[in-house]
Amino acid sequence: QVQLVESGGGLVQTGGSLRLSCAASGRTFSRYIMGWFRQAPGKEREFVAAITWSGGSTKYADAMKGRFTISGDNAKNTVYLQMDDVKPEDTAVYYCAASQGRAWYSSNQLNSYDYWGQGTQVTVSS
Predict the structure, then answer these.
(1) DSSP 114
(2) Residues 8-23: pLDDT tens digits?
(3) Of the candidates 116, 97, 6, 112, which has an alpha carbon nearest to the alpha carbon of residue 53?
C-alpha cells in the first residue's frame, strides 16, 4: 500500500519561503514520477511541479518557474517543494502524488497519477 504524507504547510507572508515535504512509503519508488499539485478554493486542482525519482528530470508549471524548486532524497523516500517569493495567489492546498510507469510527457496531468497524499494547506498573507 503506497502512502504519501505531506507536511510543511502553514502561514507565510508575501515574498517569504516555505518548504513542503512528501514522505513516501509502501513501494520501491525508483521508477515513479513524483508530482506536486495544488487546489485553491473554488478552483480545479492544478499542476505545480514533477520530478523523476532518479532526479534526472524536473518540470514546472509556468507560474512557478524560477520561484519553486522540486527535489528528492532517495535515501529518505522524500520529495520536497521549495517555495520562494510566494504570492497570495499561491494560497492553496498542496498535494503530493505518485505516478507509476507513466510517460514523462504526461507528468503534468492529474490522471497520470495513481496515488495521492491528503494535502497540506499553504496560506500566503498579503
Answers:
(1) -
(2) 999 999 999 999 999 9
(3) 97
Closest to 85 (Cα-Cα) out of 46, 37, 124? 124
Q: Look at residue 75 and give its three-state secondary structure.
A: helix
Give 56's DSSP letter.
Answer: S
17: Cβ contacts below 8 Å, ≥ 6 apart? 82, 83, 84, 85, 86
Separation between Cα atoms, residue 30 and residue 90, nearest integer Å: 30
Residue 8 and residue 28: Cα distance in Å, rounded? 24
Strand partners, 59: 50
- Three-point CA angle 77, 83, 86, nearest 5°: 160
C-alpha cell at 20: 513542503
The band of 1, judged by pLDDT with boundaries at 50, 70 and 90, is confident
Q: How far apart are CA 31 and CA 55, in angstroms?
A: 11
For the chain, how far is it from start to end, CA to CA, in angstroms?
40
Residues in CB range of 14: below 8 A, 6 or more apart: 86, 87, 88, 124, 125, 126
